[in-house]
Structure formats: C-alpha cells, structure tokens
Amino acid sequence: MTTSLTAIIRYATLGLTIIQKKNMKRLVTCAMLSIFLLSACTKNPIPADPKEEPIPNPNGGSEETIPATADIYIIGEKYTGYQGSYALWAEGTIKESFTDYSLEGAGLESIFIQENSGKKTVHFFGSKSVSQNASRITYFNKKNYVTLSDKLNIPIISSWNEAFIAHTTFNKEAYLMAASTLTDLSDKRYYYKIDRAGNPTVHELLRNKAYEFIAVGSSGVFVSHYEAKLFWTDISVYRENNFLNTYRVELQDFSYLTPHDMVMVNDHIAGFICSARYDPTSITGYLYVTVDLNTKVVQSHRLGLPVDFHAGNLTVKGNIVLLYGYVNNDKTAYYYQIGYSTSGLFVIQKVPLEANGTSVYTTSDIYDSGASIYVSGNEDNNPVYWKDGKIVRMQVASSTKAILHDIRN
User: Fold this and answer.
1) How far, in Å, CA of 57 to CA of 380, rounded?
2) pLDDT, tens digit, for every residue of 81-123?
C-alpha cells in the first residue's frame, strides 16, 4: 500500500489493537468504508439461479485458486512501521503475495474454504473500491476478483457505495449481509449467499430495517436489529422476511444494554453477547442473552468477566457458545465456553491457552473445525494461533507487527 489514503486506513486499523476486540471486525470494516458514500441500486435484487456455474475469471481464461492443503489459514495485515499490507498464513508460514493482482483499495473480511467435487480451495470476501468514492462487496481468489452485484446483475449506480453490514458462515457456506440505497431513497437490505461450490445468490430482506446481525442455523437464516432504551433493549428477530417477534432484554441493576454479536445456538435458540453498565459501580460489563424463538422466553446472565475485558465475537460448538477476548497487558490467554448444564443451570467456563508467562497476549478470532478449536491472536505483537490450547508461533517475515482478522481451516 503506497498511497497516503491507504496509509491512513492502515494506521487506523493498527490502532484497533488498543480498543475493545468485541467490535474489531465491525470497526475494521468501518475504517475501510468510511471514506465512501451511501449506496444505491436502480432496482430490487433478483435471486439468481443457484445452479449457475461458479464465479468465473472476468478477464478470461480458467479460474485459478489457492489450494487448501494446510490445516489452518489465517488472514491479517503485517506492518513495517506504519506501512501495512495483507498477508495470508498457511498454518505458520506467511504468504505475502497470495494474489496475482494488487489488493490496493481492498478490504478483506474473511476467508472462505470452497469445496467442489472433493477439492478444497482458498477464497476471500470483503470490499473493493470501484472508484474514488465507491466500493462493492467482492469475492476474491488468487487470479482475480468479482464484484457480486455485477455477477448477479444488480445495477448499482457507479457513484454509490455498497455497504458491508455483517457476515457469517454455516455448513461451509458464506452469508454476506449488505445495504444500499435505491434511487427512490428507500433503504435496501439483502444478503449474498455463496455455496460451497462457489455459486452466489442474492436474497432480498425487508426494506427500511436497520439490521445489525445475521446468523444461520439448521432452521434457516435469521437477521436481527435492536432498539436500545435506558434500562432495557428490544431485539427484533426475523427468519428471512418473516417477522418472528420483538424480545425485551433487561436485567436488574443494569442499563445501556447493547448487543454486539448474534449466533444460532440451535434451531430455535438465538444467543447474544451484550455490553451493559452495572449501575451500582457504573462499570461496563458483559451479559449473555438467550432468546427462545418458540416460547419467547428471554434469559439474561451476568458473565462476571474482568472489568477491562475486551469481548470478541461468538461461535458455536454443539450447544456451547465460544467467546474469545482479552485484557490489556494480560500475560495469559484464554477463551470462554458458555451454555447450560443438563439440569438447566447456566455455566461459564474459562479455557486457558498456552502462554509463557512473560509476554502480552491478545486474541482476534476463534473457529471450531469440528476436530479442533483454533484461536488466533498475538504474542507481543507477533502473530500466533492456538490449536486445542497449544500455541503455534507464526512466521512474521520482515514485518514488525501483525494484526490478524480471520481464521479458517
């Protein structure tokens, strides 16, 4: 990255290491997109044929991908001074030039392991600037990149921006929630789905709903938004375009409840991580909230995490929710398992990760491969990951620092 604008964006991203990890992905996205305008479409997105061929090379020739031969891949940014660029780590080995084109103006959000006829390849999704003032949600591989709105014939006016709201994966498929503004100035929300073979479709959501979260489970795709009051928060949940209910979240002695992430724990339980102020001390803490979409029962639990804990995002392993996070200048590393015992009692368990007792640790993501649990992070600014609690120190090459964004096997 050579331009001053990119340097500003990279410097802003570097600064995220000292703020709460719970908003890391969202804030990285905002830093990448804040220079752009709102977005506009000229017509409603129309679902594409899910049987169409995988995303082609727009420049001609055959599609070329990065073979997924490693046990784990991590995407991040490496820095020398204030100059940053994207890097891909295959297990512990860095791949600095993992695309055949420049990623100038790109904002990579996550890794997607594509599976087709038993063959695995590494892809990425995120945003890419298409002009000085506009960007589009984009699907990347080694040889080329494709803007999904072009692929699915969604004619967004060139001067407008397509905003990335949230994303998740389920059953090895990616779901990317987007926002744009139509020419009649009505707000438009929809999500892209990319199946494991690379086939994209677009799915329209209700208009004028400020969706914040998307979560997928065996019973469908769920989207959600919230309205915060002083002593409670109302969370509205939809299955696609079908409104399910608005659920009130409140807990005695807590105010300013704010949801930060959502997962589907099973086919009818939605789980949320929320920050809130504990009024007797005026200190911000974290709550774990479950919403039963069938019975409409809401349960809120005070997690009792350290005062300066920076909570990350949630993921699910079976019926257990995994939460990563860290404390400033902490010389230990860990994640939490959250759930209910067989007798129905709420349980939170701290799971330690290997640490040397002298370095400072942060964590940046967590992933359940089915066989192992991976956590990515940093040890004294050097990139590491943990596999089932055991630390793996990654190659840094000429970098002095590295910020990790996403981890997938």
Assistant:
1) 40
2) 788 889 999 988 998 889 998 898 899 999 988 887 778 889 9
